[in-house]
Amino acid sequence: MASGENTMKQSGTEGNHNASAGPSPSRGKKLCDGVYSLYEPEGQPEVEIVFIHGLQSDDPKDACNDAYWTTWLARDGSQDNCWPQTWLAAVYPKARVLSISYDASRALKSTSSGAMDLNPFGETLVQEMVFSGVDIGQHGCPVVFVCHCLGGLIAKQIVVLGHERFKGDKRIEKLLKNLKAFVFYATPHGGSKLVKMNPDLARLNNTFEAIQRKVYNNKCKFRVVAEAHETSSKWFSSSMIVEEHSVRYAGFDRVIHVAADHFNICKPETDRSTSFLHLTGCIEEVVTEYQSNQDKIWGLPSLVVGVDAKLVELREKLKERPIVGLVGMGGVGKTTLSKALFNTDWGNYDKCCCLEDVKSHSNIVDFQKQLLRELCDERWNENEDPKDYLRKIRQCIQTKKVLVVIDDVGTEKNLKALQVEAFQHGCSGSRLIVTCRNKAILSDYMLEGDKIEVDVLDNDESMELFRHYAFHAFNAAYEIGSEEREKFEHEAVNIIHACGGLPLSLEVIGQHLRKRNHLLGEERLDVWKEALKRLMEAISLEDDDEKLWSTLKISYDDLKPFVKGFFLDFACILCDAKNLKLTTVVRIWDNRGGLQTLIDSSLIKVAKLNSKLSIFEKNGLVMHDQLRDMGRWIVRELAHKDVHKHIKHMWEKDVVKKFFEDEEESSILEGLSMKNMEGLKVHKSHILQVLMNMNSSKKHSHHYANLRLLNLSCNSINVVKIVLRTCGIHPQNLRWLSLNTTPIRKNHLRILNANFKALCVLHLRNCDQLVELPSSIGDLSSLKELDLAWSCSLRSLPESIGLKLGNLQVLILSKCYRMRELPESMSNLVQLLELHLDGCMELKRLPSGLGNLKLLKVLNLGMCESLEVIPAGVGQMLKLETLYLSGCRSLHTMCEFDTKMPHLHTLDLHGCEELRSFKSLGNLHRLRFLDLGKCSELYMPDLAESVGQLHDLQFLDLERCESLEEEVAEALREGHLHTDHLERLMFTIIPETALPSCPRLKYLRLGYGTSGEVTKELSNAFSESLGNLVQLHELHMRGVASVPEYVGNLTQLKELSVERSGRNPLSDALRNLVGLQILCVTGSRCRKLPEWLGRLSQLRTFTLDECEKLERLPESLGLLTQLRSLKLGCKKLEGIPDSVLGLTQLTILNIRKSTRLTLKEEVRHALTERGCTIFS
């Protein structure tokens, strides 16, 4: 802003504000001269939206100094509603909203000639955007530029200068990398009344288009809003300022026209205005793509340096060779480099798969299963011949374009088992990246030139990474100013030299020092000097691994003794128990603070567990393999001289065998992992014989009084029995016992009694021989977590569980298929937080006193097919967050919620076919997920009113609820349904009225009935409203005569399913769905399909089933070059056009139900040769 006073209205009152002091809070916070923050979210943003204004009207209130604000004022009757700050922030509370300020009038040299000089503005703004404290594009989330008029050309200039003049500036490169979309409001790409087409503008357009094509690979998103009304100005008579051809100049085809002039085009009247929805549609697409990509990518450190040149080299080698090896010492960044390439390039492949830390896993079959699952979309059946599955994996690698990363492969044997040879013989563009420390392992599969030696960071890169971790304000308590930092520069130089350029060392030592930033200057300096001294001592080591471990050990050495113990627990014992949840480890250690210290020190990291394991398991703990190896090295060093006096953790088979062979007691042993101790045949007879001999010893001198952690998973019953008896002499300190996947039985578990007074976590997953638990299980008075999942023979629990286990917090009985009843005493488990009974298919009733569990947060009863009644007390569980009853097909009586449930956000009653009444939906005002689908007998007379109280609803399934059809129609007709947050909607009845506005809806399934031939024409109001669902990704329609032409507006649509339609299911407007990937037409009465079908160039799956009148397919079918799966089940269909030979990506052709169809032999042969599987 210029100095002086600025008068403005706020909330109906006027006030003067000194511009030099910055704008009032309502006008945003000034971050620097050219950037204002309009809205900052709590925590990490999921998108940054940057507004760039253009030329101003001749209205005095639109003065150039305030253009960053006034350009974006809404036309809603108020005078100070800056809609990006209000409406947009309300729709995207996790967005960061900023606005650019500059004097646009200075950019236009002459209104008569239209000459421009954008360079000074682009040059200044691109640097201001990445200033410290401004940090646009530095958060790892996508950036969207929203531009009005000349602002669009400024945005282009920013991109061009960023790539040309500021190449090599890491922060600017990061901004440009995260730039994902442009929304142009009346931008004169091809010139206008004010900005004439001239050589400078043409050059800008051409350079920008080249960058978009070569750098962004045409993946940037562009949206255009065009003016539909003429504009009056002091500069010219009333006319259109930016004509149609100009807004479409660069081939932008996502254009909408708004009934506004040039200066009002970016001033919507409401948050339902077309221009606003066009913008939010683009933002939603960017955010959704970003979030979905997070599921594909590997987690990277918060800052990655030194990989750009290596990525270029890696990509160049991958162009020439199918297999490239990354070799180098541990901790040098091989995995980071492979992750970085995978995260940016996975979208260029049909399938992708990452095999992490292969060397550390004893069972290579687990990785073969992962390859089959992720490359071939198949599950491994243990009853089938493994050779058939390996053949399918090889075929997939050779016929599809796949990307596979094998991280830390370990041995040549592992390489061979993972079908690496297939990459050498394929012709589909499949690529493999292998990381390892010993390059000799790769010699049989690649030439020396196909390997990349991943070297350490140089001094500048090391300093950048170290500063990030040592000074970056991860936590305000640890932040120090730039002047303070200068005092430590000399020590920092020495520290990075001592770290030897190893990224892992720099991260760990940087985190270690950052946590001491709260100390006073001299005291903090002493800490740095001490760290440097210890680093220098590590340099003298000759072994690379030991040198790295000595460096990492500095962070370990500074931990408090009890936290050191936790670190060694995890490194030696717990990390072998895969998918341990964070909450489980907290229970084992009974110390959240110690675990948090390890997480804050980067010694343990939180990772999202595979969501396929369970919808409730989210946060798991992982440890870098080098940190794990360092922990084990520390233990070995302590035990080097005398195992029995110093070793606290044992996990290696040879060490365990020798330990028991010596037949001596160990009073300090704390952790013992004997997982799969019989997994290697060479050890089987030895370890069992040793244990048998030890057990028969008359001395019985094996006292393990301090044993806290014991993992006996995946062992025979002989090993389990002997070890339990031996350790059962003094079990008073045992806190975690894992017997997963063992043939344990009731009599074996009797050893677990009151002597195990510290045992708090007992894992008995997948114990398929376990029919009952002994009553002595109730003597485990400290037990907090009991996991019996997949113990499919278990029939009941003893009463003692409820009578004595008063501290139990988590009880997991998932997939205990034979579980028939639960003891009434379970109502005494007043500390229980989670109860998982999903898949207990024979369970008929719950304890009547279940409502006494007042602290319960999760009650999971999914697929309890025999369950009939939910006890009334469940409705009084005020702490309940999730009630999962999906698939309880016999349930006829539901509890009622007579009081408001302040925490319940998920209620799933899907498929409760016998449930007839449920009255208290209105008290569940916090619900985000409500599934009443297939509750065919359910009647709720107050449904419309109740649904109207669910303001936060994101998921709603009312499909095939025949008794609720009128109530559903009323809810839609009267506008009771709150749809601002709704993302998934399913219902059977299709109303005559329009659908409500659903700005975030991604999935919609609707349709009539379940059988018969009746189809219905949709009302115009309803059809038109479908076209407004601009964020829709999936649309499933049943029983409609045809898909409305308005669906052609849904350019984000990825999947379309049409079932039981009329003669013309696909209207011509659907040709615009060029992003469609899945198309399914079932039970249609159509005789032919339109030729425009070939325009759906992204289609990957096409199904035509039970279309009994369909006689031929269009020739344009061959244009679907991305098609992978084609299923044809139509009785009258006699042939496939020869153009099908153009389907080079086709892997599945299913014509089994097309009984008249005869496939030409030459077509069959050609498809089979390409690797296509034909079912006929």
From TrEMBL:
Residues 1068-1129 form the R13L1/DRL21-like LRR repeat region domain. Keywords: Repeat. One of its GO terms (biological process) is defense response. Residues 1-27 are annotated as: Disordered. GO terms for molecular function: ADP binding. It holds the Pfam family NB-ARC. Residues 314-473 form the NB-ARC domain. Residues 1-23 have a biased composition (Polar residues). Residues 738-886 form the Disease resistance R13L4/SHOC-2-like LRR domain. PANTHER family: DISEASE RESISTANCE PROTEIN (TIR-NBS-LRR CLASS)-RELATED, LEUCINE-RICH REPEAT-CONTAINING PROTEIN. This is NB-ARC domain-containing protein. The lineage of its organism: Eukaryota, Viridiplantae, Streptophyta, Embryophyta, Bryophyta.
